Amino acid sequence: MRSNHTVRLSAPGRYASGFLVSKALVDASLSAHLDPGARDLPPHLSDRAEFVLTAAHFLRGSGGSSPIRVRGVRLSGTAREHVSIFGTDIGVLRLETPAPTRQLPMLSPTPIRFGQRTVTYGFGGRSNALVPKELPGRVLARVPFALSRNPFTRVRHGVMVFNHPEPAIRGDSGGPVLSDGLVYGLQSMITDPLGFNTRVATVAALAPHLPAIRRAMEQFGDANQE
């Protein structure tokens, strides 16, 4: 899967990762989530994304007049409106102008399994890049709940992923976590006791929150169209 679905988000003094989605894509994934008999999803959808999914903790303090800048391959846009999904570290942003048409990976309607191989796309350490790095990993466990040290960042329906050889770092937050071409979650937290990065990352799973993500999109009304 090409990485042009992953974007870099920046606001004054900070940046994060995110990935492009459209209403049609979320609708297809949600239908498969609600109907176990209809789970033969195509691996991707060619569409103009109107939204970005990212880590909700990046959006804290972003309620001012300054827009969030969205940069990626063949994309330079902004987002001013966003909604955080209650109880977990998932945020939905609406692009002020839909992105150019591209292949968007489908969101998995089912949870990821123990031992599955993953690839996390993120811009950690690449605050000016347009192409994300790729972090191979493997699922260690699913957890019902995870909490950051601060303790303002919470993940409900989490996944513990061991990334190797390169760990996830700050700036990778919000990046998509794929397995077999489907997006299962987004990067949320790293595990770094006393500053030592253990390579174990907490991922916010998407499948249990697909209904809430779709409702969040409805809060914006009709997305801008050209």
Give a written overview of the molecule.
This is Trypsin-like peptidase domain-containing protein. InterPro entries: Peptidase_S1_PA. Pfam families: Trypsin_2 (PF13365). There is one protein chain. This protein is mainly β. It has two domains: 6-105 and 208-219, Beta Barrel (Thrombin, subunit H); 117-206, Beta Barrel (Thrombin, subunit H). It has helices at 23-34, 210-219; strands at residues 6-11, 14-21, 44-47, 51-54, 68-72, 75-84, 91-95, 102-105, 117-122, 133-147, 154-163, 176-179, 182-190, 200-205. The chain has a six-stranded antiparallel barrel. Strands 9-10-11-14-13-12 form a six-stranded antiparallel β-barrel. The chain has a two-stranded antiparallel sheet with strand order 3-8.
Give structural attributes:
Peptidase_S1_PA, 2 domains, 42% strand, single chain, mainly beta, 14 strands, 6-stranded antiparallel β-barrel, Thrombin, subunit H, 226 residues, 10% helix, 6-stranded antiparallel barrel
